Amino acid sequence: MKNDPEAAIMAMVRRFYALSLDDDLLGPMFRAEIDDFEEHYGIVADFWSHALLGTDRYKRGTPYVHHTRLKVEEAHFDRWMAAFGQAVEEELPPELAEPAMQRARHMTESFKMGLLPLPEPKARPLGAPA
């Protein structure tokens, strides 16, 4: 399957969700948000096909907007990256694996900035330089 990039991407998507649905933090969130997993796998595979192969199948804009209603914490991102990294390692050929991980790390940082509350500013002693 690693010889067929599209099949490898779909295998990676399915493996990611298999791992995530078994996760006690991610599983309940995904089950509450996703009505049709088969349809969802296709959408996510289209995104990764676009991101990794330059195809024109993903036509839903930025994936960020589809995640804004989720109630997430830092731990969700850690678990997401762990499951994604495992799925990528198991299913994608090396020439797709590294770009996939780079994109996932970038997306994770961007999503964190948009979805997590800002940290509390640290108090400085009076008169301390800024």
TrEMBL record:
Keyword Metal-binding included in the entry's annotation: yes
Lineage: Bacteria, Pseudomonadati, Pseudomonadota, Alphaproteobacteria, Sphingomonadales
Top-level division of the source organism's lineage: Bacteria
A UniProt-annotated Pfam family: Bac_globin
Keywords from the UniProt entry: Heme, Iron, Metal-binding, Transport
Name the UniProt record assigns to this protein: Group III truncated hemoglobin
InterPro entries: Globin-like_sf (IPR009050), Globin/Proto (IPR012292), Hemoglobin_trunc (IPR001486)
